[in-house]
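Subject: for your reference before the review

Hello V.,

The reviewers asked for a structural picture of the protein, and I figured it would be easier to keep everything in one thread rather than splitting it across files. Below is the amino acid sequence we used in the manuscript, unchanged from the supplementary table.
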Amino acid sequence: MNSEYFIGGQSAEELAARFGTPLYVYDADVLSGAYDGLRQRLHEAVGIFYSAKANPNVSVCAVLASLGAGLEVSSLAELATARWAGVDPAKIIFLGPGKSQADLRACVEAGIAAVVCESLDELAALDSLCGENGEGGALRALLRVNPAFSTKGARLSMGGKPRQFGIDHEILLRSASSLRAMRRVRVTGIHAYMGTRILDPAAIAQNTTAILAAAEELEKALDFPLETVDIGGGLGIAYFDNEKDLNIDQVTSGVNAPVDAFRQRHPRCQVIMELGRYLVGRCGTYIVRARYVKESKGEWFVVTDGGMNHHMAAVGVGSFVKRNFPVRSATRPGDLASHRYTITGPLCTPDDVLASRVALPEVRPGDLIAVERSGAYGPTSSPVLFLSHGSPAEVLVADGVPHLVRRRDTVEDLLGKQCLIARTGS
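And here is what came back from the structure prediction:
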């Protein structure tokens, strides 16, 4: 039995033949479905902002922008990507704990919706920058709060402990004089991000309720107009055995109730939910080609042309227990999974394991292996320069048509930025 493996209506074999491997393929229909499914259920007062760090490819960003998403960016390149993708500056926010003067100046010049300030010193620097050359100050700032509470539903919790992110809630309560000293920047709200990969709807509802309450407390203590509250997001997707995708009806029901009550008290305040993985994770597939299949001490290995350098998330370096992303044969997807293979990449490190002892049909050299749910934190969180293999190609399939949206790095690309020093004789 040999059925074909399709992504967005395109055969994986044909995509690999045309664009080569290793290869990321993004399905625009899946991407749009994730956004639309949430947008249709979420309270109308909640704006959806895409966290570009999850997948900063400009074409991915452009699809989400065309659907109505704002963009949350954290670097000059991501800000430029947002503008290139056609995002209105009024729907861009910039955050990150270590913004440079160049970052802040670019935000001022672009006239973005808000800078999320992660320290009082950063707020003061932004205020000073807005006054350079006599410029007026209409730029809005949100204060990133490190809440006193944490969430139990996150795979990585971001609140309740000492963090490099944001300003402790307790410190902010004592900071009214610092805010009054600002002459040009308008503090108009708060931002809080409680964690990532949350798969418990109740935890998301609890986070939303607690963040909105913290915003009201800070509004009273600091006397600023509450125009925006960024409740973060952290919605997860299921990757591993024994995980289930979020029931989005339960999620939105749990979010909409506290938002509705909050909006009755603050009818002009916008609530922002920022999402990365939830929007793009399921739309991407990482395709690699088997180069060698071999046995070692009774265990079978498939050595492929891509690995940790492109997909650190699937490798899971640093995890206590190795857990596999969904992995399938893209050459014999309909055949019985009769063998167990450890899927590795071409790198000179034992960490380079895409999947451990995964059940697959028989794999032969030249076969294609698909690592599913790979649309988030692929190349963007991987050591793409390790062993100088460079970045893989990326393809977006939209309306059944594949488009190359990032070309593969060449040797010339990798060496072109280097400079060989002139050697002088002794």
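For the response letter, the relevant points are probably these. Residues 34 and 148 are 32 Å apart (CA to CA). DSSP finds 13 helices and 22 strands in the chain.

Happy to draft the paragraph if you're swamped.

O.
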